[in-house]
Design brief:
By secondary structure, this protein is an alpha+beta fold. It is 46% helix and 21% strand.
Length: 257
């Protein structure tokens, strides 16, 4: 039997339900009571009560017979971003690097065992990617995520894998725990991580971890582009040096924060 201190955290079912409704509204791009009830296997009365409560607190808006996530989340999101101590420093370097390379540049942090894109900038030659600020990705299938994982202990990495698994995104995705640990060991030595079409066919990425002056990892910065441009010495040597330099700039500037 678990006590209050060592046992699993207590959950409030009503809050879980409200959170599930908000997530479903996002995934469905808005929905009515019946559609939400069917998707979440809840009664219409339950869904309606939660929606009315969320609307009264301005977390959702009603549009005829449909409901949608409200702009209140934009306010909360901006607040959350600015709570990251190096946010302004990271944004400046991401923007600079995108202009310099002409490619997609992104900064990611870890939260709840997943990677969250904190900022994204696109250079003049950048391809369109589906990622966006606030988007969450599993850590094992991106260069950014692997760069972050490389700065965690083996036990912490295993905890992330236990929680989220190692699902395949492409034929190149790492789906074996031992292989992941081997790659993370290499990343620790070389201070650079690669995504070789592991999350999307035709897309490659190079990333470097960013550490706090105290030694803890705070995130990672990356450059992404098509396999047609990310190949040979550019992919293996030039871009790794560029992204490592950007990570170093953020780390040095962070000492002043």
């Amino acid at each position: 039997m678990h006590d209050a201190e060592s046992g699993p955290p207590r959950r409030v079912q009503a809050v879980d339900t409200s959170c599930a409704i908000v997530e479903a509204l996002r995934e469905l791009d808005g929905a009515g009571v019946s559609e939400l009830a069917q998707r979440l296997d809840l009664s219409k009365a339950t869904v309606h009560s939660h929606l009315q409560t969320l609307a009264a607190n301005e977390f959702v808006v009603q549009q005829g017979d449909s409901y949608a996530v409200s702009l209140k989340f934009v306010d909360l999101g901006e607040y959350a971003k600015n709570q990251v101590s190096i946010y302004d420093i990271a944004v400046e370097e991401v923007e600079r690097l995108a202009e310099e390379t002409g490619e997609v540049v992104q900064f990611m942090i870890e939260e709840h065992g997943q990677g969250v894109y904190l900022h994204k900038a696109t250079g003049e030659n950048a391809i369109q990617t589906a990622s966006y600020t606030g988007d969450r990705k599993l850590l094992h299938c991106t260069a950014l995520g692997k760069a972050i994982l490389s700065r965690l202990s083996d036990e912490e990495v295993d905890a992330v894998v236990d929680r989220h698994g190692l699902p395949a995104r492409t034929e190149n995705t790492i789906t074996d725990r031992d292989r992941l640990h081997e790659e993370l060991a290499t990343i620790r030595e070389e201070n650079v991580a690669f995504d070789d079409e592991e999350i999307l066919d035709g897309l490659r990425c190079v990333a470097a971890p960013v550490e706090h002056p105290g030694g803890d990892v705070v995130g990672a910065i990356s450059i992404s582009g098509p396999t047609s441009r990310f190949k040979g010495d550019r992919f293996d040597e030039e871009l790794p040096e560029v992204v490592q330099g950007a990570a170093n700039v953020i780390e040095v500037n962070a000492t002043q924060v």
